């Protein structure tokens, strides 16, 4: 449960200016964990384009994006990304918090929320990766029931170079494909 004053809700086009402000405010804080971003990303106009792309991906069931609000200020994000249907029914999870909102259990709550949402949309498995030295994020994932399952060498181009990541997963259920409670897939006869 989120502390008083916080709200987690789906991304909306009208969120773009507040998101751009949050990224500007957290630029230095997020730099070690994020890919290099063009200057336009940090502008209101550039972020409006970014949000439009993300909403298109949501409409196509490739992503589900959520924004953590504290009043009228963006305090973080959590995304269900890279959704693969078919026999995999899997996704990846990403999240970040504003530097002024760390240490309140918010990341764990956001991850738990996203895991439940992934289950609701019929996914079977959620995967997340962290940089090797990001022990705080690793602890968040472990508190949310994720299990470490390996290291991927040179997985993502972060902070200007290819970097290794510790991989985590959470299996959401063991129901067969076609179960109306866990999947929208109908098995072939």
UniProtKB/TrEMBL annotation:
> PROSITE patterns attached here?
GNAT (PS51186)
| Keyword check for Isomerase | no
Pfam (any one): Acetyltransf_3
What residue stretch is flagged as signal peptide? none
Keywords on record: Acyltransferase, Transferase
Which SUPFAM superfamilies does this chain map to? Acyl-CoA N-acyltransferases (Nat)
**Gene3D superfamilies per record:** 3.40.630.30
Domain named N-acetyltransferase is located at 6-173
Q: Does the keyword Acyltransferase apply?
A: yes
- List, alphabetically, the InterPro entries matched: Acyl_CoA_acyltransferase, GNAT_dom, N-acetyltransferase
Q: Which family does it belong to?
A: Belongs to the acetyltransferase family. RimJ subfamily.
UniProt-listed PANTHER family: [RIBOSOMAL PROTEIN US5]-ALANINE N-ACETYLTRANSFERASE, GNAT FAMILY, PUTATIVE (AFU_ORTHOLOGUE AFUA_3G00765)-RELATED-RELATED
Identify this protein by name: GNAT family protein
């Amino acid at each position: 449960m989120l502390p008083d004053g916080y709200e987690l809700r789906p991304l909306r086009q009208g969120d773009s200016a507040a998101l751009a402000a949050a990224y500007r405010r957290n630029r230095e804080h997020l730099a070690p964990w994020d890919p290099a971003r063009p200057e336009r990303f940090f502008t209101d106009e550039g972020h409006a384009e970014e949000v439009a792309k993300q909403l298109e991906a949501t409409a196509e069931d490739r992503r589900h994006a959520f924004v953590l609000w504290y009043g009228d200020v963006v305090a973080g994000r959590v995304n269900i990304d890279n959704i693969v249907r078919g026999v995999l029914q899997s996704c990846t999870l990403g999240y970040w918090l504003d530097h002024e909102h760390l240490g309140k259990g918010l990341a764990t709550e956001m991850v738990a929320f996203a895991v439940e949402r992934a289950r609701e949309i019929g996914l079977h498995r959620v995967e997340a990766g962290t940089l090797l030295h990001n022990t705080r994020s690793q602890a968040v994932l472990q508190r949310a029931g994720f299990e470490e399952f390996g290291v991927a060498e040179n997985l993502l181009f972060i902070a200007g170079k290819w970097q290794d990541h510790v991989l985590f997963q959470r299996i959401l259920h063991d129901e067969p494909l076609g179960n109306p409670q866990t999947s929208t897939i109908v098995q072939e006869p």
